[in-house]
Specification:
Mean pLDDT: 90
Strand content: 25-35%
Number of strands: 7
Radius of gyration: 14 Å
Number of helices: 5
Largest sheet: 7 strands, mixed
Helix content: 25-40%
Low-confidence stretches: 4-15
Order of helices and strands: HHEEHEEHEHEE
Structural class: alpha/beta
Length: 158
Amino acid sequence: MGYYNSTSKGYNELHSEEQRKKVAIIKQNLKIKKSYKLLDVGCGTGLSSDFDCNVYGIDPSTELLKQSKIKNKILGRAEKNPFEGDFFDIVVSVTAIHNFDDAEKGLLEMKRVGKRDFAFSVLKKSKKFNEIKNAIKKNFKIKKTIEEEKDIIFFCGK
């Protein structure tokens, strides 16, 4: 988390435009009701607060979380998700899975806490891309993929 804590003050300036594009694609492709609970795993500065529902976030960077507008945010790792099973209607992770210590374990935790819809934005140039893609294919039903400039976005069900 050293990189994210040290660049936290300029994170939005560096990454918000590209991350907001991905969030917009996710919003366009998921039916999100106001009553839904959505978990953003690797929420960072909270760009997912743009979703019009009850947004929760988890991130291991204290400095990024300090800037987050998400009301329900916690310091933590994807692989040790503290939420109850089937708690969230939607679980998203935007360009974060390549930072997990164990991508498959993090994905399994997201599956455990999610009920129905999942969206994973995966960095195409990541050294872990094939490992992550294979873990998604193994553990989820892929409904749709969208190739974005830097990421591939996987829309999945359980």
